[in-house]
Amino acid sequence: MQPHSPRRRIRPHRMAALVSVTALTLAVGTSAGPGERARAPRPVAAGANPMTLARASALGPCMIRGAAAVQMSEGVPTPGGYSRSTGTVRALTLMIDFPDAKGPGSALDRFGEFFPQTADWFRTASYGRLDYRAEAPVPRWLRMPKPFEAYGIERGAPFDPGYRELVEDIVAAADPGVDFRDYDLLNVLVTPNAGPSALDTVLSVTFAGNTEAPTADGVPVANASFVYSRQDDGSGTYGQTGYRVLPHENGHVFGLPDLYTAEGGGAVGHWDIMSEDWGANNDLLGWHKWKLGWLTPEQVNCASAQGTSEYTLTPLASPGGRKLLFVPVSGRSGYAVELRTRGGNDETVCRPGVLIYKVDAAVDTGMGPVTVHDSRRDSGGCTRSPNVHAELSDATFRPGQRFVDREHGVSIGVGGIDMDGNYAVSVTRSRPFG
């Protein structure tokens, strides 16, 4: 669970490196390699996410719930136990190596592979609502007492016993210079020469909402991301894109599930970093931004009434305006509608338009809780960017196109584009929701 411990100012003499992103508004897995999942014991504590919407409000019908058996759900609000995702979030970042895999060069060089890029990415994605501060109070490699192989770390490894032993050893090594009560989450940047290359197997993993985690300074190390190797595909873009494994992993500590499946990124493609985090930059879905508290209630519409309703959507990449339209079809699922354009974190959008996708809170992480509907099936897509699922790159709906779900009596049509680039969208329901 996420500890609700007293928060204290970081003492300057204990902070060797600090990346700070100033919040504009303090409002209220594994890496995306096929077959990988975040190890996420179901959280039980309350209060990690600041979403405060009442289910009796106009948005109530759209606050779909996860099932009890779902480990990491798309339901809103996010259950407690995860890290906060708005306001100032302090990320304790430790660089570790092993007797048989000594860290090359400076540990702060490893830190520099991920920061300030990760903090900048979160600032852009959250419209400044997340003030992500990565802190490295121990500016050197923390040497573990056992060889890397002794921990039994491999793809899909459970928390016990290997990761429990590793966390205990990390705490023992760091504790003299770190007060764990000062932080909201833990990033462990493993020396890249420990274990196989990410091209061979992806080891990066997150243990989120872990109620069985060891404690440090009286608080559980419940939300921890581990990053191994380097996600370098040989295209020469590692310096610009290699950091993106960490925003993906931190997505889990904020309660987001994996959107790729054992078959890869074919369900969502490159429309969310929880689906594909290799290669070119991409953002989060609007549904995830609402789930994380980065969209205000005024930026979300809930289309639950019978008849036809008209809406205007502004680009997800830009601050302000209506961002998300949701059409519930059950208490656990519905269709999310948003406008995606090239801007912000979305550098590969090659067909700007309205993205329509099914969200199912009853489907678990890595099993396909989100499915993007392709407006141009079997087109081959409109991008040739490496590590981007091309087929869904042109999935967006353009003016004059319509999505129809006859089973639930729902039709979503895309109208015109105004002078500011906003899109008109209509929703027709043949019967009321509920």
Description:
The protein is an alpha/beta fold and 434 residues long. The chain has six helices and 18 strands. It folds into two domains: 80-254, Collagenase (Catalytic Domain), CATH 3.40.390; 286-429, no CATH class. Strands 1, 2, 3, 4, 5, 6 and 9 form a seven-stranded mixed β-sheet that branches. Strands 10-12-13-14-15 form a five-stranded mixed β-sheet. A hairpin with a 4-residue loop joins strand 16 and strand 17 (410-417). Residues 1-28 and 33-50 have low confidence and may be disordered.
Named CATH topology of the largest domain: Collagenase (Catalytic Domain)
Main beta-sheet strand count, sense and barrel state: 7 strands, mixed
Strand content is 15-25%
Q: In percent, how helical is the residue content?
A: 10-25%
If you compute it from the alpha carbons, what radius of gyration comes out, rounded to the nearest whole angstrom? 21 Å
Structural class designation = alpha/beta
Oligomer state of the chains in this structure: single chain
First-to-last CA distance: 33 Å
Mean pLDDT: 88
> How many domain modules?
2
Identify the overall geometry.
globular
User: Which CATH class of the largest domain applies here?
Assistant: Alpha Beta
CATH architecture assignment of the largest domain: 3-Layer(aba) Sandwich
Give me the count of strands.
18
- How many helical elements? 6
The topology string of helices and strands comes to EEHHEEHEEEEEHHHEEEEEEEEE
